Amino acid sequence: MEVGFIGLGLMGRPMALNLIKAGHRVHVWSRRRASMEPLLAAGAGDCESAADVARRAAVTISMVADAPDVEQVTLGPAGVAEAAGAGHIHIDMSTIAPAAAQSIAARLAARGVTALDAPVSGGEVGAIAGSLTIMAGGDADAFARVLPLLEAMGRSITRIGDAGAGQVAKACNQILTGVGVAAVAEALNFAARSGVDAGRVREALLGGFAYSRILENHGQRMLERNFKPGFKAWMHQKDMRIVMEEAHRLGLALPSAAATTQLFNAMVGSGLGEDDSVAVLKLLERMSGAAAE
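The line above is the sequence of NAD(P)-dependent oxidoreductase; the predicted structure tokens follow.
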């Protein structure tokens, strides 16, 4: 398929590369020219703006930081809607608020563009491997049409419902992963401060009801003190902000998510924002008076 990709950061770059590997003709644009170079070297088309991308492809994909960025590249000057032809589909794979996704979809529809929200889970590792979990919202026929593109980037792909439904699923995902990462960090810090081998504790827990992929994967990274970002703490903070804003809008109590949001706020405030979110362990160690880094 002829597809455009907008936003080539930690996640977007390997996702676009996987589209090329799957045989799709990919046209790219990013605010940072350096981010485009690996894609251009792999054969992607060189575009000057989001509108230029839409001019060359019937389907465009965005993977950017937050809702204002999505609005800018889709509805702003030199955005997708400015040059999209009849039947154009835009897939936003960023993580933004469900209400924002619905609003953007409605405004794109008014300009003849069908929008899907399709946020992902799996981090940089999943983006590189093409094994992302993709949660989609929007028109069922449009979803079916772009499914081959999603299959090039993900392994588990589910259409949840109408516009915004994919972002609701992603918010649920971030509640579970955020609280899970914090819980694993608390458990391992508790073990270490109790004077026992945290690695042996993790090994024991993996065999019982406490097992989770977070304990298995992120727990191992904590033990190895591998805080290289696959998903930066400031991004998890942003996602948890979305969760709490939606909870406020809906009048929901999310006490565990609220406490976890405060931990990510503290991470960013204490200079850990560029580390992976598993570095919440370092924050808890500092709070416990430990000097380990």
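Note on the example: Residues 2-162 form a domain with the Rossmann fold fold (CATH 3.40.50.720). The chain is about 55% helix and 15% strand.
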